[in-house]
Write a structure and sequence with these properties.
259 residues; two-stranded antiparallel sheet
């Protein structure tokens, strides 16, 4: 079983929740699971910029990334957020290694739109770095930053980075740990299992919007591209990784590329 875990920035923003998740991830890794972790950090980025008098602007939910924001991107995503998570994993007993999409040409990107500045769309993935680290018993921790062939740095959506790494590394399962219980239906109740078609219907009907729409889009993309199963689960739930590994119904599971 190859497992890729994506952790949202909100779960990493507080030291207690970060350490709790790190202990769970380290325990799974110690049990022999082949794992890769991808993380975001948007909340931390917004705070970092505000403290320096830089206003965060968004278009279609994506952060407009100017040269000033790129500098912050490297300091926050590949710096403080990545290294704090790696340190927590190391303290929990995992041999973690912090990298980004730039390292080892893991993720090559191109500009998504001129109005967004240096926001990138991943166009190529080279999983060799992940393979080498995992084969050596390491736990790769990937920050959502990439570059193009000319060396231009791009801000990449963390969900898309997770999907790209999961596909390139041939993960069996992609787990999105979020700050919500899972995907909610029209009645507000968490849906235990979805097909790709049902997920798209939730989006088309305006039930899944914003961040959850982005998660479902990413999940459907992963399934179409060969990932066997995607789970959107509450990262703050007690023993979430152990419970999911045991098959407990927690969060929302998406299976099947097109059913």
């Amino acid at each position: 079983m190859r497992l890729l875990i994506k952790i949202g920035g909100t779960l990493l923003d507080e030291a207690g929740s970060r350490k709790t998740l790190a202990r769970q991830i380290a325990a799974r890794h110690a049990d022999g699971a082949a794992m890769v972790v991808v993380h975001g950090g948007g909340k931390q980025m917004t705070r970092f910029l505000a403290e320096r008098g830089v206003e965060s602007r968004f278009i279609g939910g994506l952060r407009v990334t100017t040269p000033d924001v790129v500098d912050a991107l490297l300091k926050v995503f590949t710096g403080s957020v990545n290294k704090e998570l790696v340190a927590s994993l190391v303290a929990a007993g995992a041999t973690a290694a912090g990298v980004s999409g730039i390292d080892g040409a893991l993720a090559q990107a191109e500009q998504l739109s001129p109005e967004l500045g240096q926001v990138g769309r991943i166009v190529n993935v080279n999983p060799r770095l992940l393979d080498v680290l995992v084969a050596g018993g390491m736990l790769p921790v990937v920050a959502c930053v990439a570059c193009d062939v000319a060396g231009t740095v791009y801000n990449v959506n963390a969900d898309q980075m997770a999907v790209t790494c999961a596909v390139g590394w041939k993960a069996d399962r992609l787990l999105f740990l979020t700050d919500v219980d899972g995907v909610r239906g029209a009645d507000g109740e968490t849906i235990g299992q979805l097909t790709s078609r049902q997920a798209r219907e939730l989006i088309d009907d305006g039930i899944a919007t914003g961040g959850m729409q982005a998660k479902l889009d990413a999940a459907c993309d992963a399934l179409i591209r060969g990932v066997g199963e995607v789970i959107i689960a509450p990262g703050a739930a007690e023993n979430v990784l152990k419970r999911l590994a045991s098959g407990e119904s927690l969060g929302t599971r998406l299976m099947g590329a097109e059913t």
